[in-house]
Amino acid sequence: MRRFCDGLNRRDGLRAGVAGLFGSAIGLPGVLRAADQSRSKRDVSLIFVFLHGGQSQLDTFDLKPDAPAEFRGEFKPMSTRVPGLQICERLPKMAGCADRYSLIRSFRHHNSDHGPADHYMLTGYFPAAGFNPSLSPNNTRPSAGAVVSRMLGGAGAVPAYVALPKMHPSGGSAFLGANHAPFVIEADPSAPNFNVPDLLPPVAVSGDRLGDRRRLLETIDNFQRNGEAAANAHAGAAGAFRQRAFGLMTSPKAKAAFDIHSEPAKVRDEYGRNTLGQSCLMARRLVEAGVRCVTIDHSNWDTHDENFKVLRETLLPAFDSAMSALFKDLADRGLLDSTIVVASGEFGRTPRINKNAGRDHWGPAFTVLLGGGGIKGGVVVGKTNERAERPVSDPVGPEDLYATMFSLMGIDPKAEVHMPDGRPAAIVNNGKVISELT
Fold first, then answer.
1. Is 237 in contact with 292 (CB distance < 8 Å)?
2. What is the dihedral of CA 300, 301, 304, 309, to 10 degrees?
3. Which is nearest to 402 in space by CA: 158, 195, 141?
4. Long-range contacts of range 213-217, CB-CB < 8 Å, 24 or more positions apart?
5. Cα gap 142→133, rounded to integer Å
6. What domains can you pick out in the chain, each with its CATH number?
7. pTM for the structure as a whole
8. What is the pLDDT of residues 313-363, one digit of tens each?
9. What DSSP line would sit under 244-279, residue for residue?
């Protein structure tokens, strides 16, 4: 696994799901309290594909073929389904569905460090003083999924907010509390023996649970048959929400939503038999089951070295298959109008290629992809200068992205929540809805 330029492996410390992050006293019952919140009239869900490390705008959606060689790079632009819109030749499947998404080419913010920029993009707020990026979670403000959970809640047995294949350190709920923290899958959906650890009954959680899948399934089925009695036995001590936790572990609907092995092989192949592809497929299954927000943390786009080799051989083929299949699948199932899809890193990459054939961090200009949920397709918002160094029209920032997403989900961008001490906190930091997209 390639490591980020700060030396950290983003899986470090993220091993125990929600209970491990917040203490065993919280666990699934705390997460499921979110389901009691009211539902949006529009009933729109969100899939946020976070391209952790920072995707290069010049090598994907904002190519500059007339720039000097030390800027333009190795890839050429290709035409798409949308007349006049060109993207990277290494994204042919995305070119074929360009009418289903739009691009903000003039996206920018003022930070080019992983930790603060991560927080900014995943919450819409630049982190407060004292921010420690090495903590997990490290939120000074709640993430998008936590806000969605707080404002809209979940549906039935499934959680409101799910993070996969792991939780990003800035994906937490901050002052909104553990009720709105994500249900963390903490497993790679592309693994042959994939399962969701926190859907297993506590007695089955052991070090060798993945060694004998048949015995594991028998244990789950036995637990399901006795789930109602077990829930009733614990009701007096743990209350209604603990019964809901038992409900999640034994619910056929919840188990079905997470059972990616039930998907036809052809569908899994279309998404790509890799972490990003199967995470996108899992996200589709989850929103179809009623999950309100799914965050996919996909690493590693931190291409300081051999940028073009890594993009050509690994990152772009996976991205091309996963995202195009997601848009097609959502559309075919009648879910695209009710599901917002966002794909972005924490920043872009430097226009000038470095001495290691790589590109470094670049917050002043990058591209964000959005589609579904009422967003117009085939639109390009803004443009950058001849080297993609900065926007020259229609600058857009994280605040505007959050105002747009929440507005489309039926959440008032001007709404406030309250901190534990009673102080009001705006869910959006003075952002404006991006009118070209709606």
1. no
2. 100
3. 141
4. none
5. 15
6. 17-437 (3.40.720.10)
7. 0.85
8. 999 999 999 999 999 999 999 999 999 999 999 999 999 999 999 999 999
9. HHHHHHH-HHHHHHH-GGGS-HHHHHHH-SSHHHHH
> Tokens 């809805």 label which residue?
433
Listed in sequence order, the residues at least 6 apart from 169 whose beta carbon sits closer than 8 Å to its beta carbon are: 10, 14, 115, 118, 133, 135, 136, 137, 138
Burial class (CB in 10 A: 0-12, 13-18, 19+), 17: buried
Output 189-192 pairs: Cβ under 8 A, ≥24 positions apart: 189/164, 189/165, 189/260, 189/275, 189/278, 189/279, 189/281, 189/282, 190/273, 190/274, 190/275, 190/277, 190/278, 190/279
Distance separating alpha carbons of residues 85 and 278, to the nearest angstrom: 28
State the DSSP string of 125-170: SPPPTT--TTSSS--SS--HHHHHHHHH--BTTB-SEEEESS--TT
Q: How far apart, in whole angstroms, are the C-alpha atoms of residue 32 and residue 178? A: 10
Q: Looking at 182-284, which runs of residues are DSSP E strands? A: 183-184
| The token pair that represents 365 in the structure block | 């200009």
**Residue 260: what residue type?**
I
Token pair 């200009």 is found at 365
Distance (Å, whole) CA 285 – CA 413: 28
Tokens for 408, please give them.
Answer: 């489309």
* Amino acid sitting at position 187: A
Strands 77-79, 86-88: pairing is antiparallel
- Extended strands (E) in 319-389: 339-344, 348-349, 361-362, 366-371, 380-381, 383-384
Q: Determine the angle formed by the axes of helices 213-225 and 227-238, rounding to 10 degrees.
A: 70
| Secondary structure of residue 336 in the 3-state scheme | helix
Pair of tokens at residue 303: 């291409």
pLDDT tens-place string over residues 139-193: 999 999 999 999 998 777 789 999 999 999 999 999 999 889 999 989 999 999 9
pLDDT in tens, 90-148: 999 999 999 999 999 999 999 999 999 999 999 999 999 999 999 999 999 999 999 99
pLDDT at 197: 73
Which residues share a beta bridge with 393? 383
pLDDT digit string (tens) for 249-279? 667 888 889 999 999 999 999 999 999 999 9
The three-class DSSP label of residue 275 is helix
Token couple for 333? 């199932």
Rg (CA), the chain: 21
Collapsed DSSP state (helix, strand, coil) of residue 306: coil
346: Cα separation from own chain's centroid: 12
